[in-house]
């Protein structure tokens, strides 16, 4: 890993707009095809991109039963426990409708309503992601969403990974479809004969999925435009170079465009981590992916103080942030921008990915400056409630009418004045 002073952070800029016009053109073509041809387009595009000819799109009960036979009991127990942890965490986020009353009889409030339907996208490709099933489905269920469907690209055998199907069943979802890429996003947004349209699409995917989600936003809601994964570690001389290197590689193995960054006050640690990364890379099964990520987007930044290090972190606004310093809690209040913050030497990033209970669908590419992890609020909508009493409208109608006329909206003014019995403008 290259080691340098923290002056130029441009190597972390990897948003989807860096991709070619050809990719966007392809995505628009796929979306139009799905909108016009429905299921037929899904079968054709699945054969084209996933190299598999499907006989049906929906996962059958027999396939789910087979998945349980392929996953050992210990792993099923782990999935169940992770699901329980995730549910317990997200239950704490649940909000209620609220109302207030005033002395003049006015009632104001906010009504929370769960979304009617949500589509959860689970990536496929080079790895299986049962954890993404849990992270997408469980907060939607906690919110009270009525219909939750899951889409994921099939493997060459025409099936979804056994772990994905087990996680789906343990999450309480049964509507599972074999569809991936931009075509799956199109199916969720526009609907087909088999996959009915939803109100919101959540879940990470590759660049084609990200571009497709951006294109259909407005027709449906989306959670975020997720870019490649990233991790930043803020460390002082007390940090373990073995731990730091391992955690950097945990994200680098996701994607050649993933970013792994260390920000440290210790030049000694910097050199030790660089050496450990080389050493640990040698035995990684996905070393080619991780190596390209480290060489292209990996970096070790030296800073003069932890205060400067926090400034660098806030500028990066990383998806995952690990704080491996002697007193990590002392820095927490100063950290403004990060998707998830892992404190101390035992809080390795995969703890949050899989088991602790927090959501691992997180803002990337600096969007943690203004957005949040996937959460229960993402699956609800809010309606304002206004109920004016007769005394309240009598007291305030003229003020409201004056405001309306300030904006040149006479009909607005007259609408409230009707309640006063003043008809001079009729």
TrEMBL record:
Q: Which family does it belong to?
A: Belongs to the histidinol dehydrogenase family.
Cofactor(s) listed: Zn(2+)
What's the name of the protein?
Histidinol dehydrogenase
UniProt organism field: Fictibacillus solisalsi
A GO term, aspect molecular function: histidinol dehydrogenase activity
Pathway terms, separated by semicolons: Amino-acid biosynthesis; L-histidine biosynthesis; L-histidine from 5-phospho-alpha-D-ribose 1-diphosphate: step 9/9
UniProt keywords (A-Z) are: Amino-acid biosynthesis, Histidine biosynthesis, Metal-binding, NAD, Oxidoreductase, Zinc
GO cellular component term, pick one? cytosol
């Amino acid at each position: 890993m290259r080691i340098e002073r923290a002056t130029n952070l441009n190597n972390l800029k990897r948003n989807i707009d860096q991709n070619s016009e050809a990719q966007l053109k392809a995505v628009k073509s796929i979306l139009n095809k799905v909108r016009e041809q429905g299921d037929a387009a899904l079968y054709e595009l699945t054969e084209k991109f996933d190299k598999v000819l499907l006989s049906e799109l929906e996962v059958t009960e027999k396939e789910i039963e087979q998945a349980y036979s392929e996953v050992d009991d210990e792993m099923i127990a782990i999935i169940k426990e992770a699901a329980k942890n995730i549910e317990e965490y997200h239950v704490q986020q649940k909000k209620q409708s609220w109302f207030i009353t005033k002395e003049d009889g006015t009632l104001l409030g906010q009504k929370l309503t769960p979304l009617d339907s949500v589509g959860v996208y689970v990536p496929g490709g080079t790895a299986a992601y049962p954890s993404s099933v849990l992270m997408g489905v469980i907060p939607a269920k906690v919110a009270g969403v009525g219909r939750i469907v899951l889409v994921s690209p099939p493997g060459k055998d025409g099936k979804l990974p056994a772990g994905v199907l087990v996680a789906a069943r343990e999450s309480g979802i049964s509507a599972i479809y074999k569809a991936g890429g931009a075509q799956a996003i199109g199916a969720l947004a526009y609907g087909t004969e088999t996959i009915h349209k939803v109100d919101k699409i959540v879940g990470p995917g590759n660049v084609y999925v990200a571009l497709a989600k951006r294109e259909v936003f407005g027709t449906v809601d989306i959670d975020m435009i997720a870019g490649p994964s990233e991790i930043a570690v803020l460390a002082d001389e007390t940090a373990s170079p073995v731990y730091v290197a391992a955690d950097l590689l945990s994200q680098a193995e996701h994607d050649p465009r993933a970013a792994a960054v260390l920000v440290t006050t210790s030049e000694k640690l910097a050199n030790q981590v660089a050496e450990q990364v080389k050493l640990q890379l040698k035995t990684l099964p996905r070393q080619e992916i991780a190596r390209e990520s480290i060489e292209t987007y990996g970096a070790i930044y030296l800073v003069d103080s932890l205060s400067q290090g926090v400034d660098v972190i806030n500028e990066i606004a990383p998806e995952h942030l690990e704080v491996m310093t002697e007193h990590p809690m002392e820095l927490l209040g100063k950290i403004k921008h990060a998707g998830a913050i892992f404190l101390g030497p035992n809080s390795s990033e995969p703890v949050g990915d899989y088991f602790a209970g927090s959501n691992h669908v997180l803002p990337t590419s600096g969007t943690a400056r203004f957005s949040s992890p996937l959460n229960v609020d993402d699956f609800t909508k809010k309606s304002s409630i206004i109920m004016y009493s007769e005394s309240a409208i009598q007291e305030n109608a003229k003020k409201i009418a004056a405001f309306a006329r300030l904006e040149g909206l006479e009909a607005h003014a007259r609408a409230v004045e009707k309640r006063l019995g003043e008809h001079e403008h009729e």
